[in-house]
Write the C-alpha cells for this entry.
Amino acid sequence: MSNYVVGDIQGCYAGLRQLLDKVQFDPSRDKLWAVGDLVARGPDSLDTLLFLKSLGSAFETVLGNHDLHFLAIFGKLKKAKRSDFLEPLIQSPHAEELANWLRSKPLALRINKDTLLSHAGLYPHWSFEKALGLSDEVSTILAGPKHLSLLSSMYGSKPDRWEEELKDTDRLRFIINAFTRMRYLKKSSILEFETKCAPNKLNSNLNPWFTIKNDNINKHQRIVFGHWATLMGKTHSNQYVALDTGYVWGHTMTLYCIESESRISVQNNSKQLA
C-alpha cells in the first residue's frame, strides 16, 4: 500500500488521471490524499469531484480556499467568476451531493503520527494537536445546519494575529484564513495576504510561514501543504513539503509518496490555462 498526496488539482481532471496512471494508483490498495483546492480555474471541476468521491475510503482531502468559495457560491452567498469555470459543477444534478460531501471535509488532517496535511500550512504557534482541534471547531459548524452563516462570515483579513481569546466569527475567520490563505507573516506573527511571489523575489520584511521557528513541533514532524504555486514545490526543508506546482498555470501537478518521500509530476500541455 502507498499513500500519495496530490497538490492543487483545481479542476484539472485530465492531469489528475494522468498523474495517477503514472504511479499505477490502485484504490483497492493505495490511498490518495489531497491538499485542497480541488476545484476552480481548471476546466473540469465536476468530473474531478465525481471521480474523487467515487474513490470512497481510498481518498481523503482537506479544504482549500477555492473549495470553500465554491460552497459559498453554491449557497448563493457569492457569484462565480467566469474564470472559475464552475458553471458545469453548479448546474449539475450532482451539485448538492458534492457540496454536502465537501462540507464534511476538514481543514487539517493527520496522515500519520508525524505528518499533518493542510491547504496553506501550519500557523507557527500551533502544534499538530492544536491545529486539529481548531480544524474541528470549523468542521462542526461547516457540516451542520449553520454552515451558511459560517460561509458568509469567513471573508475578510481581520483579525490577522492569533489570540486564544478570539471568539465567534473572529476566531473562525482567523482559523480558516490560517489554514487556507496563509503565505507570509509580518512581525509578531501577523498574517499578510497580499504577497504571492516566491521568497527569492521578495523585497520586504515578510517571512514565509515555514521559516518561522515553531516550538510546538519536533524535527521529525512534517507538514504537507499546497496553495502557494510560486514556490514551485521548494521550501528548502524536508519538514515542509510544498505540493502546489502550478499545473493550472501551465506547469506541473505533483504527487508525493509518504512512504518513499519521493515526488512524481506530470506537465500541463493543455492550451486552456487559467
